[in-house]
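Hi F.,

I've been meaning to write this up properly since the lab meeting, where we talked about keeping a consistent format for the predictions we share between groups. The idea is simple: the sequence comes first, exactly as it goes in, then the structure tokens exactly as they come out, then a line or two of notes. No screenshots and no reformatting. I'm using this chain as the first example so we have something concrete to point to.
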Amino acid sequence: MTQAAEFGAPVQGPKAPAAVTNQIDQSLKSLMTGHLGSSRPAYLEEFGMWTRQVNGTTAEIYVYAGGQDVLVATIDANGHDIEFAGVSAQLASVSADVATKAPASHSHSFTSLTGRPTTISGYGITDGVRTNADQTISSHKTFADGKRVRIGSGNDLDIYHSNGYSLLEVRTGTFEIRGNVAGGDLNFTATRADGTRTMLIHCANGQYVDLRYQGSVKFRTESWGGTCYGEINISSDAKLKKDIAPIEGSLDTVLGMNGVYYVRKDDPTEKRLVGFVANEVEEVLPEVVREDAEGLKTVSYPSVTAVLVEAIKELEGRVRELEGLEPRGQKKSALSRFFSKLGLKDSN
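Output, unedited:
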């Protein structure tokens, strides 16, 4: 539809009634459609607004001011997007005022950030900010309890505080923390209100990882394994156990185990080690062998100690018997001691 040259009835005539009606109809249509056309209508006065149709899906809104057409906004019907001309400069100039007057809660969704600022600075926006571009938050922002900073197109990660807990909630995928500073370390610290560090996980630039307590290293992992700096205690209270029974046949069990030298296939240093083969141990002492999630067998070396203790006691009893000594904890009679001196056994 094109706009009429001017509004109103013809001032020159005579004209046929049909021509008069058509001119008035065109004038009314132009008025109702916001002066839609390919160029500014001649009748438009100062500060009048008109619309230019760019193509089938895009239109531009102009204001006639100062003898020229000033672009106000561009409308994209396909993307349902309205882009206001000069909005970036205007936002930058009023940012401080918005920060002091912004409401407690605000929500806005950007479908496109082309030509718009990508820094949220001093706007006082505290809730419901959504954006499809990288953002830099250069000033303090406050979020109410339970209100979340949600990251990812699939709501993948939430950061929030609720019921006394500060939470980092991974909703999809794998959680990974990376230190991308060249030559830098990565620390995870638990610190008291007085500034005292209680627990610290220290990642030393890919060389090793320390678990520290009050500044002292307690455990360190390296490429070849781990080192404990201090004691390792395993809970063993009787209150935690049931079906307690003595270990029998311990000497035969130990004799069925083989200590070996070996080199781990995943150790680049190829250091020679000593220990057991879990698959062999399982055949004689399955109680100390477990299988992990990948189907690899492991040995509880501390648990083997109990079998070794009982084997030593059993072996000591046999030695005492061969030497003619009374079993430990028992006393022989005077006659038995006499026969032992003679190298004879007491038939009693």
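Notes:
Residues 224 and 267 are 6 Å apart (CA to CA).
The two ends are 130 Å apart (CA to CA).

If this format works for you, I'll send the rest the same way.

G.
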